[in-house]
Amino acid sequence: xxxxxxxxxxxxxxxxxxxxxxxxxxxxxxxxxxxxxxxxxxxxxxxxxxxxxxxxxxxxxxxxxxxxxxxxxxxxxxxxxxxxxxxxxxxxxxxxxxxxxxxxxxxxxxxxxxxxxxxxxxx
Length: 123
Hints:
Layout: E1 19-29, E2 32-41, E3 46-53, H1 58-70, E4 75-77, E5 82-85, H2 93-97, H3 101-122
Parallel strand pairs: 1-4, 1-5
Antiparallel strand pairs: 1-2, 2-3
């Protein structure tokens, strides 16, 4: 009977791992906007957080999501985060590739303000 060689255990997920926002996807859900943030960490981990904003205005929705994500405490940044609408919201394949730079600026501004407030409270 052949013996199996023990495989190394996978690296545990660190609870203290710092995440950063990589992409933000928007989708209309009735009279609200669902915002899904794709987060990555320094070890290549990927995590998605979704929140449905209590509004149908995309600007207010990304600001709402930025406050939620930055308030988590272990998300360190959102620089170069891309904001785009999900595929089902796009009318053509090209629309799915278009980034909404104005919403990116709104998301980053609100994220940085909330993150600064969280850091001030921790001092």
